[in-house]
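Input structure tokens:
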């Protein structure tokens, strides 16, 4: 009679495979994707890893379907504005 909520891995370190990026002039870069594990809050530090580089940055804003939120968890499709 109902669909149960799937269990999400919110205790592991944050992992977001980036599906798309958008540059916002004067603000930074928006990273778009579905969170695979963990959780993130506005103001948390992030480390972008890939292509032989590690870049440290900060999540300045988080949006879910164009609505700003303060935190999000695994399974949610998000856009995260980062500095730089």
């Amino acid at each position: 009679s109902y669909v149960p909520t799937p269990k999400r891995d919110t205790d592991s370190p944050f992992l977001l495979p980036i599906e798309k990026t958008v540059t916002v002039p004067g603000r930074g870069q928006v990273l778009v994707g579905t969170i695979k594990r963990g959780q993130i809050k506005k103001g948390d530090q992030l480390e972008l890893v890939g292509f032989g580089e590690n870049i440290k940055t900060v999540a300045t804003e988080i949006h879910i379907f164009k609505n700003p939120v303060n935190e999000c968890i695994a399974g949610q499709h998000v856009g995260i504005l980062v500095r730089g």
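The CA atoms of residues 13 and 53 lie 19 Å apart. The chain has a mean pLDDT of 93.
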